[in-house]
Amino acid sequence: MKTFWKENVVYQIYPRSFCDSNGDGIGDIQGIISKLDILKDLGVDILWLSPVYQSPNRDFGYDVSDYLEINPEYGTMEDMDALLLECQKKGLKIIMDLVINHTSDEHPWFIKSKQNDPIYRDYYIWRDQPSNWSGFFSGTTWEKYEDAYYLHLFLKEQPDLNWKNPKVLEETKEIMHFWLKKGVSGFRLDVINIIYKTSLENGKKHIALTGKEHYHSQEGCHEILKTLRQEVMNKYEAFTVGETVLVTVDQANELIHPSRKELDMVFSFEHMEVDQINNKWFKTKFKPQKLIDTLIKWQVGAYWNANYLENHDQPRSVSRFGNDKAYHYESATALIAMLLTLKGTPFIYQGQEIGMKNGEFKTMEDYKDPETHRIESLMRKLHFPKGLRKHLIHKTSRDHARMPIPWTRQGGFSISKPWIQMNTRMKEINVQSQMEDQTSIWHQTRTLISLRKSYSSFSYGSFNVRYHQHGVFVYERILNDEKIEIIINLTGMYKKLNKMIDGNIIWSNQPLDIKMKKIKPYHAIIVKN
Ligand code: TEU
Ligand code: CA
After folding, report:
1. pTM of this structure
2. Closest Cα to atom 14 of ligand 1
3. Which ligand is the nearest neighbour of the Cα of 313?
4. Does 7-315+345-359 carry CATH code 3.40.1110.10?
5. What does the pLDDT look like over 461-480, one tens digit per residue?
6. Ligand 1 atom 12: residue of nearest CA
7. Domain coordinates of the chain in residue numbers?
């Protein structure tokens, strides 16, 4: 059955860092509107907006204080309506980022809850004594207020909603109807598989996330998702993609298989953990083969995949999984080719199409991400040497993904000082130069998106791995009599091919001759058999 979200390419926008239209150094909705023609030209179909709702910005919008109002830093509801209208005119869809595990501590619900309001007290999770849980940003998950403690799995300014309270479900249904009636095409659901806390008792001690067994992928969560699907989503031409932390292939299938009637797809994290020891802040040397094997596991095991290699929480993929110095163009285009030819819906993160790389960030003042600062102060408390702290923070900080998009060689993001530093190599890594250069990463991304749409085996075909060793990944996509082979060398070395290339080469990121027995560093080739 034809499904638009299985055929479309999604582009994630982090509004704060996309484009500033009014000269305050902060990206905004009018800035997005001004770039829609470029996004349309690139060929993407759906725009996922990271939160633009009212928020005190403790976690840059993932702490919502009013789901039905726009943060004035990003514009007005009229601007949002204008964006929706412009997108409709251009054949673009929009999905919103719905953060319903928690709100901001400045949400009116929480203010009343703190005042023991009989209706709102139980919108949140209160306890007389804290349990031993630890949070996603390290430290305790309980904050004392007057004679009780409230739960926050993230910042203390992000109190967790009480999903055992049916009123919370009713409020959420209204919020979803509000945005769907405005014409959005669905939602990315923030940490959606941890919203239901079965118990608040002490958990088994872990190095991180003690207590997770009480809230991770609980039955109560499945029930909520079935209700939201049945009573809201099914009434619209819209889809959901859940951000599901710690999820296994089986747990993902329990959320997305059509028979479950819960979510349409989920972002998994296993491939985002291939270069870490036991925690995202302790990175190991990246091994391409481990990424390939993990992707294969999910390509084969998951009913459907939401494929991504970077987002607003992750370092830039060309720096993390490629080589942003010696093979910047080659590795960026090889990674994008893989993203756009795997089975599943591809999610491109803003800047990935021009090979945005990690930033410099010389001092802690350069970092703006609250998680980064919390982790650095924890490392300081644990007496990590300064050099080690600097190194570990630089490897993983979410701020690499939050540097403003350079639209021109001079920057072009804002006429003022941006809220966070620009990328140092913006002279070559900027949209304007790359749109003018037919051989750029931007143009290769545009070509690959167009190629993806020319062959339905990319959307609906099977995934068959043909070879996957020594960092070389060869797989086929087959639908009826259409068979396409994709060859990716994810290493910086020449590699022997396991067999001759036979067929019509429809794309390659580097020159090649068909008789060649070796492929080049970060060589990506697409062959129609
Ligand atoms: O992130 C959830 C999450 O657990 C991680 O992806 C997070 O980035 C953190 O690094 C855990 O180590 C979602 C949002 O994507 C993130 O931006 C928010 O900060 C978080 O939830 C809270 O809303
Ligand atoms: Ca602005």
Report:
1. 0.98
2. 190
3. 1
4. no
5. 999 999 999 999 999 999 99
6. 136
7. 7-315+345-359
